[in-house]
Amino acid sequence: MSIVERALRRLQSEAPTSRTRRVFGKVVETATSHATTGRVISIDQEALRGAGLLAPKHQEREIASQYRHIKRPLVAAAMGKGQEALANGRLIMVASALPGEGKTFTAINLAFSMAMEKDLHVVLVDGDVVAPQISRMFGVEAEQGLLDAVSDPVLELERLILTTDVPNLFLLPAGTRSDRATELLASEQMVEAMNSLLQRDDRRVFLFDSPPLLLTTEAPALAEVAGQIVLVVRAEHTEQHVLMDALSRLPEGCSPSLVLNQSTLKNTGYYYHGYGDQGGSDPVSKDE
């Protein structure tokens, strides 16, 4: 049995309640003027740290420095800083070949890091419409989101973006599940919706947490829309032929950025040194 078949069988055998169900945020009512919906997601960053989804205090500076290296070329290509801006470069997809590589972990940390930029508004998009981990984690699984707006042109996607209590960080839920998710993501309506969002605010960057490339048809459809793709590779775990297969699912001419997750090598520059390996089970491997 191939590694892809094993991963698929594992996902099929897992009951929905056995997946990560911890919630690290909740929607609260607010009267502040900057929240267009009047509702804000309150994020429990300490709980995220406790779950291994953000750096612990004693490694915060080290991990923050590494994510600065990762985000810098992405921001430059998105905003045209020191180079010509990429077409749709502000639509950034974070993907992996299979579950357990750490893509959701990477998307969350990259979003927090980008939100620290003075001139950016970062929208973390739950593009994993198959298994919407981001929506579950931040308590917005029941909220309307991406799929709702793409399936109903009357529904304005802008109004579904939720403010968070982290400065410059916003969140767009996955929305209502649909058997036509692949077709919706590949539709002209999806392109029009993304173009509309980009035109509203030229400081916005959209960071999509996507489904695994080798187990879904939704991920390649999402890749057709993205201007930049970050492919997360788990050190000493992702087999070379699996990585090559995942790369073959990306649009022709695409040059993805590779992030090596959970590397045990020190001083690896753009590569992340996994702090989740310090005893016990690995928190990153629990999330897709």
Describe the structure.
The chain has one domain: Rossmann fold (3-Layer(aba) Sandwich), CATH 3.40.50. It is built from ten helices and nine strands. The chain is α/β, with parallel strands linked by helices. The radius of gyration is 18 Å and the shape is globular. The chain starts with a helix and ends in a 27-residue tail after the last strand. The C terminus is likely disordered. It has a nine-stranded mixed sheet with strand order 1-2-5-6-4-7-3-8-9, with helices on both faces. The longest helix is centred in the N-terminal third of the chain and has 20 residues.
In the sheet with the most strands, the strands line up as: 1-2-5-6-4-7-3-8-9
Strand content: 15-25%
CATH architecture: 3-Layer(aba) Sandwich
Return the CATH topology. Answer: Rossmann fold
Short recap of the structure:
The protein has 288 residues and is an alpha/beta fold. The protein is built from ten helices and nine strands. It is globular and about 45 Å long.
SSE topology sketch:
Blueprint: H1 3-13, E1 25-29, E2 39-43, H2 45-50, H3 60-79, E3 91-96, H4 103-115, E4 121-126, H5 133-137, H6 146-151, E5 162-164, E6 169-172, H7 181-185, H8 188-200, E7 204-209, H9 218-223, E8 228-234, H10 240-248, E9 257-261
Parallel strand pairs: 2-5, 3-7, 3-8, 4-6, 4-7, 8-9
Antiparallel strand pairs: 1-2, 5-6
Summary tags:
nine-stranded mixed β-sheet; alpha/beta; Rossmann fold; disordered C terminus; 10 helices; 16% strand; 288 residues; 9 strands
